[in-house]
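re the bet — no i am not wrong, look at it urself. input seq straight from the record:
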Amino acid sequence: MVLGEYIFAAMAILGAGVIRGYSGFGFAMICAITLSFIFPPSQVTPVILCLDTLASSWLLYKVRKQVDWKGLKYIGFGALLTLPLGSLALVVVPMNYMRIFISLVIICLCAGLLKNKKQFKSTGPGTTVGVGMLSGFLTGVAAIGGPPIILFYFSSDRSVSVSRASMIAFFLMVDSLALLSSACYGLLNHQTLVLSVSLIIPLILGIWVGNFLFGKFSNEAAFRKQVILLLMAIALISLVKFAFLS
């Protein structure tokens, strides 16, 4: 990796960290697209998983009593079923096709997030497992399993604190499983570990800045909408680049 590539990666992680620290999501999706401009998806996904696991670990202890562990059990089961399939797809699917797929998925999921409204009061085990299966596959493919979970929790009658705590627990759980799956397929190697470690400082700095900004500005809903629109714009640029210009 040349210096220019590292600077680009560090700036991408820094920006994604700021957004994660402020809005609570978006880190993996931004990294999945921006880092894929210079690294193959098979290398990007393990790096994102390493950094996202680190970013989530310290949060769980503070919110563990608010987690909806019963619902999380079904979501985790669904994710466990499909996560290895996502990791396998990274190995067998050509790089450009995977980049196009990632861009299309992010565009669709962001559109869903923009239209998100409270619509249901309860969900059965089948629906909950289904959400976990979709999130698990997307996590294995590109570490972007967050949007289905965000839609699931914030479209229900659960309180914001319970939803946030449950998502933190899920992200930590599924990212850990995805790291294990990546290692089994040989995706987690010395090169990805070195890159992950080298990006820890930009990650921590970004999250700290995001938390600081969140304390200063109260219009969180408007910012989240802006973040989603930014993600869609980046995904569209990526789609055009890899589908029509490559």
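see?? Residues 3-244 form one domain. told u. also The chain has one domain: 3-244. so pay up
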